[in-house]
């Protein structure tokens, strides 16, 4: 296992921020984590476990140890005539996994194609798009307790998944995810209800899409609105869509009849992209960070951006949205530093 000092994190975060880590460890086998725990490596070290770095903003250098999870492997662990359980190691790239599943006729993940994520982060963040969330397919998450070295297995219920949330985002767990198992179907059950999907299919004269056609449709829709990380740095959606009470929603709807919102539990989920656009930020920049012109929920690196630029812009957007709508946006991205 290689440990490097003063490692640039530029290639390890999709925002393209050039922060340094005091120490950097690349893990290629989950057993190496168990070994590090046994060697008391994590004691007295500030440690950050990093997957694909697609949802993280480094504010300044990281004065601790970054452990990059690069363990790979995909295997079928159970199957019958209709269902297959597939286990993927945490360091696998999410999108590669989705296409691998489609190549093998294991269905369910089509709507989650092209989300920049690692397998481990997909569980941490409960990634979601077009009416589907990772939690709908996760049956087990394997992890190692970084204090005791105990190998743990979390059921779907144990993970306490929520909207872009799970138990792994909260400090009560000291576990690092090593692998995730998904329950997929050998029969396609395509979810086509989103208008963007039906519009795309009719524009392309596709009446009955195959799962791969649906995945391609979703990928095309995503990249028409979101910047490709290799072209412009971002973390995808920077904020969560806020859920507000019915009474706050009704008051806002009266003042802003074209406001975009969806019922969510007892309240309503507001489209944060709409709120940001109405607050006047869409396409604007502040320092070296900007609000993406095609999707206001996305903050982007306008060139040589650092974490302070991002935080300054995020705070300005939060303040203006709050002043206009009385709603405080919460970042979905993890801000470190
Ligand atoms: N909208 C605007 N202006 C904008 C952006 C959006 O008015 O600049 C309005 C539009 O009316 C649109 C509505 O907001 O109908 C919703 O926009 P969109 O369909 O683009 O989805 P979103 O709510 O902004 C969420 C996820 C995305 C996911 C899409 C599609 C969150 C935080 N984001 O975005 O996930 O791809 O739905 O299902 O829930 C991510 O998490 O990184 C991500 C990209």
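^ structure tokens above, recovered residues below v
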């Amino acid at each position: 296992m290689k440990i490097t000092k003063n490692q640039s994190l530029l290639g390890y975060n999709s925002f393209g921020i050039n922060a340094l880590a005091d120490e950097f460890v690349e893990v290629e086998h989950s057993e190496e984590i168990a070994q590090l725990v046994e060697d008391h490596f994590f004691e007295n070290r500030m440690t950050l476990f990093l997957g694909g770095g697609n949802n993280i903003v480094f504010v300044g250098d990281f004065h601790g140890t970054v452990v990059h999870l690069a363990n790979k492997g995909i295997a079928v662990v159970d199957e019958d005539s209709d269902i297959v359980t597939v286990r993927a190691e945490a360091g696998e790239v999410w999108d590669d996994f989705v296409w691998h599943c489609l190549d093998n006729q294991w269905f369910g993940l089509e709507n989650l194609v092209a989300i920049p994520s690692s397998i481990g982060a997909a569980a941490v963040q409960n990634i979601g798009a077009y009416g589907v969330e990772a939690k709908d397919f996760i049956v087990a998450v394997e992890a190692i307790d970084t204090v005791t070295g105990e190998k743990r297995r979390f059921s779907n219920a144990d993970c306490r998944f929520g909207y872009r949330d799970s138990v792994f985002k909260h400090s009560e767990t000291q576990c690092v995810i090593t692998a995730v198992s998904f329950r997929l179907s050998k029969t396609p059950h395509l979810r086509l209800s989103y208008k963007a999907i039906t519009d795309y299919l009719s524009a392309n004269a596709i009446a009955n899409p195959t799962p791969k056609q649906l995945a391609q449709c979703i990928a095309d829709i995503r990249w028409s609105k979101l910047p490709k990380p290799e072209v412009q740095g971002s973390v995808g959606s920077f904020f969560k869509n806020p859920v507000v009470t019915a009474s706050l929603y009704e008051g806002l709807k009266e003042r802003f009849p074209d406001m975009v919102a969806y019922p969510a539990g007892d309240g309503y989920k507001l489209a944060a992209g709409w709120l940001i656009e109405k607050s006047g930020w869409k396409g604007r920049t502040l320092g070296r960070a900007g609000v993406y012109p095609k999707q206001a929920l996305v903050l982007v690196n306008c060139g040589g951006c650092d974490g302070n630029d991002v935080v300054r812009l995020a705070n300005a957007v939060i303040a203006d949205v709050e002043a206009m709508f009385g709603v405080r946006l919460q970042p979905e991205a993890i801000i470190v530093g």
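The chain has four domains: 2-69, 74-185, 195-225, 234-336.
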